[in-house]
Hints:
The complex is a heterodimer. Chain A is an all-alpha fold. Chain A is built from four helices and no strands. Chain A has a single domain, classed as ACP-like (Non-ribosomal Peptide Synthetase Peptidyl Carrier Protein, Chain A), CATH 1.10.1200.10. Chain A has helices at residues 3-18, 31-34, 38-52, 73-85. In chain A, helix 1 packs across helix 3 and helix 1 packs across helix 4 (73-85). In chain B, strand 9, helix 12 and strand 10 (316-318) form a beta-alpha-beta unit. Chain B folds into two domains: 4-239, Thiolase/Chalcone synthase (Peroxisomal Thiolase, Chain A, domain 1, 3-Layer(aba) Sandwich), CATH 3.40.47; 250-396, Thiolase/Chalcone synthase (Peroxisomal Thiolase, Chain A, domain 1, 3-Layer(aba) Sandwich).
Amino acid sequence: MQRSDIETEVIAILARQLLLPPDEIAPDARIDDLGLDSLGKVEAIFALEERFDISVPFNANAPDQPDFDISTVPSIVAGVERLIATRPA
Amino acid sequence: MRRVVVTGIGTVNALADTVPGTFEAFRSGRSGIGPLRFRDVDRLAIRIGAEISDWNPEARFDPRELGLLDRVTQYALVAGAEALAMAGIAEPLGPRGGVILGTAAGGLATWEDSYRAVFSEARNRVSPLVVPRLMHNAPASHLSIRHGFSGPVLAVSSACASANHAMGLAVQQIRLGTADVMLTGGAEAMLCFGGIKAWEGLRVLAPDACRPFSLGRKGMVIGDGAGVLVFEAEEHARARGARILAEVAGFGMTADAHDIIAPNTEGAARAMQLALQDADLGPQEIGYLNAHGTGTLLNDRSEAAAILQVFGQSPPVSSTKAAHGHAIGATGALEALACLLALGEGVLAPTLGCTQQDPDCPVDLVQGAARQGRVTAAMSNAFAFGGLNAVLVFRAAG
């Protein structure tokens, strides 16, 4: 899967959570600026896992997420790309 | 208004299947958390919990009744029998006795086993006893039936505050005069595949350890168990010469009316203040506070702020959840036992798992090892999903 395809899917997932049209989410948007709350993040991660058949190492209790950075759209795309690459066959 | 006292306590939890064993674990700082061992655990991301190991229901119950008893009820019955034996109550109390027990999930494993049978194993029928096994009032009703308590009997379900709400309502029954003796507390048995799978999605469970109020915390660790306490009108207890363990002096409950998950400092603080008012105590008189202390970032910081708001200067605080796990609807009852240990023996059970206290939780944290101290009043906090807060205050027997 191309990086641009992943980006489109990530933005679509965020848009569904935020009840926004996808074109209102910039490819370099910061997640907190979009107004996604903590439950919204958990739901978005669930959607990423279902969409890409990956397991996202995310814990709501750690202020920093060394294993999966969800602070921006590009960081999520990079994280998904890495998880797809290491997905067990 | 009638005063309410505690005359008996009983428990089954990951630390021990008796009160003395649990107290010994509190004194020595032992944890009951370990690898989970139930069916399909290899399909979970979270594989630790405070399970009750070597539970052997066949050795504890008649085979003819066991078909009716989900584990949540088994735990309640064993804890209830210990509590009543300690209280010296062997005769049925009839309408003057009641049972109010908390549980968040009731007979969850019964749901799971039945769904597994019909969905996964394509079976066409399930046990005819599924409904009476899984209903939330099964633990309370079985205690009522077994011991002949025919007054106010019901279940209370308010997630992680269930047991504290149950105990608070039990106090009110005795104060109102609708019963003289109440069996109360909570029971929970969420440690099964579906129970943890449901929690996993919220991303609030720790994969490695429970670390309340600690930097590096990764969340809650779930535990199973039951705590049952005998609450009794003081004059009733004195008239029969019962040993009084402590007074249940105050109860406060509030709702945040704010968020279904995120805690709210204001709602928690109001519940603590109401409990102090109800007990007619000043904050400086609380010598031990058993915190809700789940080991989640949101709870610990919000709770610490609420404690400092109510107390100004923090009393000694500990969370015992890294020992018995977060027993959800039973946890308040297990934590009431820690308060009774503090009042009775001056032993403040430690917060385990705290490697470095979070500077954003600047309470006087009892950590690492138990602390000795004379305690004349103790507070126990429970704050639930749904924004429900229930706080109890216990006072040393006078």
